[in-house]
């Protein structure tokens, strides 16, 4: 390879590598959102779903939160040997860790009443074992919030929560909640720490939310409505989840969206990670898989409230306290703006109904917020064909970026290293918003798929003048409740594992550089075609660390000698040693698992640099990142 050291090319956008979050695979409720109680507000269609009841428990309907009106009444069982109570099963159980504290809270009313709260092991030796317990006195006939902190003495993946009436009389309970005290940044109504850490560790430049298909909804009334996801958490209404059903016809009847982790929390998370927030709003169309259904389309002349939702969202993120939505953000705890720069309209839509509607959003957003960057979509590309129809439409509408999705097999990734080499340099930029190699390996998140993603991303990086963002999808998956795979991060109730694809995205995120540097291979400009001896490569300069970073992906089955020569260094002198980070597995079908999370992780070594040249070898089936500093 020859690095044209003095010819700095396109700037690499700080947003280049990031994350795409969607509530799929129990990614939010039961996942990133640390709430441990399922159906805490008794609003699931089956009001007691997730709960077992004992004695006299009834569902009532005139609770203190108008958007979540249901609650339960615990009444005296009327017999000394009977008890009244209820038990929550959590999301595939309630994960408890030894010596960790859990904050139980509940809205309640009752006159001089008591409840007993227990963390239990429901399956211990055939009988229930109480792990921790405490009493709460309910001392008001008005609705009030009560709290109790319990410490678990043991680690248990599938605990339950029990509440008993511990007095004679009636107690009403609403919004029954249990959170680990130790959430991300110790926030109440917080997020699961290990999962946020796995996201933040990659230094994401952009964070897209809330989806995906859930932006659209199975039917239009099920669409994600951000206004329902802000304000007091107790009064955010339940929404169904498009991922209640999967394409394989599996059915998760308890999969709903509580909006507990809503847009405020998602903006805050973006800020915590230093990522640009990128919310997507509904364009007036339900999920594209429903497009023949008339219920899927909002007539073009009835889009006003949808457009207003988009405008109000920008006000929520950026408006000052004199504005309606800026005021709400400030009241929620964030007086400073979130500094929103990007907004996506529509997700993965097919056909002419999309640009017809998008046009009105673009006009309104441009008029009110001329600097806002608008992201359109080029369709799902599900047959592996490019969407010839939608790209020209996006150009006509002059959106700033186009969201492209590709869940494609290995040969597609192998052939697409040059995908962006000939893209129109004058049109909208690309947001590779959902990519994942769906390989034919024995495992879904196997190493070989991630190696081909690494190869593909060299082409993304070489074309940084066209591609501004790239995010893998889906992001999170519960091992006991997934609807889609592969995924970037898997978890159960206690543990999480970073896939090989996570390591690829992480290596790109930490080595993205600031400018592209031209790279030649055997005298020819590297083009990302698979016939280059199975080698894919890209080079960047990183201004803050004054370092050249060369990435080489060897997809072939043999180790290959590689020399990297720097041409045009002028007065710059390279350090005598380069750092080399490699990701490799002898078994292409191997994957990281919850039981063996570090099976395939990057290895670091040093390589000698002789003046302006570095001689090394890239192992078979290896992704290598070389960092060569200038002294
Ligand atoms: O990532 C899973 C789904 O894939 C997304 O919701 C959708 O945009 C795409 O079809």
Structure description:
This protein has three domains: 2-12 and 515-629, Golgi alpha-mannosidase II (Immunoglobulin-like, Sandwich), CATH 2.60.40; 17-34 and 200-496, Alpha-Beta Barrel (TIM Barrel); 51-182, Jelly Rolls (Sandwich), CATH 2.60.120. Helix content is 16%, strand content 33%. The strands form five sheets. An eleven-stranded mixed β-sheet has the order 24-27-28-33-30-31-32-29-1-25-26. Strand 17 (373-377), helix 7 and strand 18 (401-408) form a beta-alpha-beta unit. Helix 4 packs across helix 5, helix 6 (353-368) runs parallel beside helix 7 and helix 9 (447-462) runs parallel beside helix 10 (500-510). The protein is globular and about 90 Å long. Alpha-L-arabinofuranose binds next to loops.
List the helices and strands and how they pair.
Blueprint: E1 2-4, E2 17-20, E3 51-54, E4 56-60, E5 71-75, E6 85-88, E7 94-96, E8 101-121, E9 129-151, E10 156-165, E11 170-180, H1 193-200, E12 206-209, H2 213-216, E13 239-240, E14 256-257, H3 263-273, E15 276-281, H4 304-318, H5 324-331, E16 342-345, H6 353-368, E17 373-377, H7 390-397, E18 401-408, H8 410-415, E19 429-437, H9 447-462, E20 467-472, E21 476-478, E22 489-491, E23 496-498, H10 500-510, E24 515-516, E25 519-521, E26 524-525, E27 535-542, E28 547-554, E29 560-567, E30 577-584, E31 603-610, E32 613-618, E33 622-629
Parallel strand pairs: 1-29, 2-12, 2-20, 12-15, 15-16, 16-17, 17-18, 18-19, 19-20, 21-22
Antiparallel strand pairs: 1-25, 3-6, 4-5, 5-11, 6-10, 7-10, 8-9, 8-10, 8-11, 13-14, 22-23, 24-27, 25-26, 27-28, 28-33, 29-32, 30-31, 30-33, 31-32
Helix pairs in contact: 4-5, 6-7, 9-10
The structure holds alpha-L-arabinofuranose.
